[in-house]
Amino acid sequence: MEIAALVSGGVDSSVVVHLLKEQGYEPTLFYIRIGMEEKDGYVSCPSEEDIEITTLIAQTYGCRFEIVSLHEEYWDKVVSYTIESVKRGLTPNPDVMCNKYIKFGCFEDRWGKDFDKIATGHYATTTEIGGKTWLSTARDPVKDQTDFLGQITNLQIAKLMFPIGHLMKREVRAIAAAQHLPSARRKDSQGICFLGKINYNDFIERYLGRMPGDIIELETGKIIGRHNGFWFHTIGQRKGLGLSGGPWFVIKKDIEQNIIYVSNGYDPETQYGTSIGMQGFHFITEDPWGEFGDAKEITFKIRHTPDFTRGWLTRRGDFYHIESEKKIQGIAAGQFAVVYDNNSHLCIGSGMIV
């Protein structure tokens, strides 16, 4: 079986290569360049060290290694989406779009099509039911990344392998240390990939500029501060507001008037809600319910967290709605609500919150 392994220079994808070789496979390693390039006015993502480590891994295990570029595709599909979403007052999720369009979309179209399987270092698993492949959660609940994979297709999931999905993160690091892999002690990457070390607000300001407006206390209507543009702030945000007497939380945004509404206190009631509407709900493998009928009992996530929330999914026409069993904080339009089965095992699909 011909396997393409997507590698990043991190510990997870390095251990993927080790495990594949241990199982008797001869994977071809691919490093995808997607960072901001110098022609964009930025120094590239810290890819040189990544490539150096990945080259060492390839040499250690005798694997073919290719460096491929999807920079332009990434700009068109992911960076532009991020800028446009922020401009409309939404909270985007670039990682979800990167997986759907770049890692398992453009890569498949250009290189992956020549391979039987694509292996990655995601913390996820697959489950076969009735001859169909379902995305399922990883053994490590803290590292589980199925929420970032909630928009992939049935063709994509059928071709994917997640060799570390059955391992805890500490076990992955232990394997890397035992094999003396150069990535064994590397820290996990944080933040949005294409930004590298660039500050997020600096990036947004470069493309959207500043537009000063009022910060208003939701309960009193009193102006208590100023901001530089609603696009620098997201629902549920606490830090970076520059207000005294806090903590203050962003509760909602008026895009037309360029107003940020905030509430005071460590746990203001206005942060919470139970109702989540979604548009364009996407089933990964298939709709398990067919004729919808009554509300379906599910578990779900609206952000990257080890915790699942119980709720009920209903459909009216093309519009899907989750009613949560308990109040949840920071429901933000533009984020993805990711739906799982009642046992929080199978990832069924996701929809963008409206």
Q: Profile the largest sheet.
A: 6 strands, antiparallel, barrel
Q: What Rg do the Cα atoms give? A: 21 Å
Low-confidence stretches: none
Strand order of the largest sheet: 12-15-14-13-16-17
Q: Label the overall shape.
A: globular
Q: Calculate the mean pLDDT score and round it.
A: 92
The N- to C-terminal Cα distance equals: 43 Å
Roughly how much helix do the residues carry, as a percent range? 10-25%
Structural category is: alpha/beta
Spell out the helices and strands N to C: EHEHEHHEEEHEHHEEEEEEEEEE
Oligomeric category: single chain
How would you describe this protein?
The protein is α/β, with parallel strands linked by helices. It contains seven helices and 17 strands. It has a six-stranded antiparallel barrel with strand order 12-15-14-13-16-17. The chain has a five-stranded parallel β-sheet with strand order 3-2-1-4-7, with helices on both faces. A four-stranded mixed β-sheet has the order 9-8-11-10, with no helix packed on it. Helix 1 (11-22) packs parallel to helix 2, helix 1 packs across helix 6 (169-178) and helix 3 packs antiparallel against helix 4 (94-110). The longest helix has 17 residues, at 71-87. It is globular, with a radius of gyration of 21 Å. The two termini are 43 Å apart. The mean pLDDT is 92.
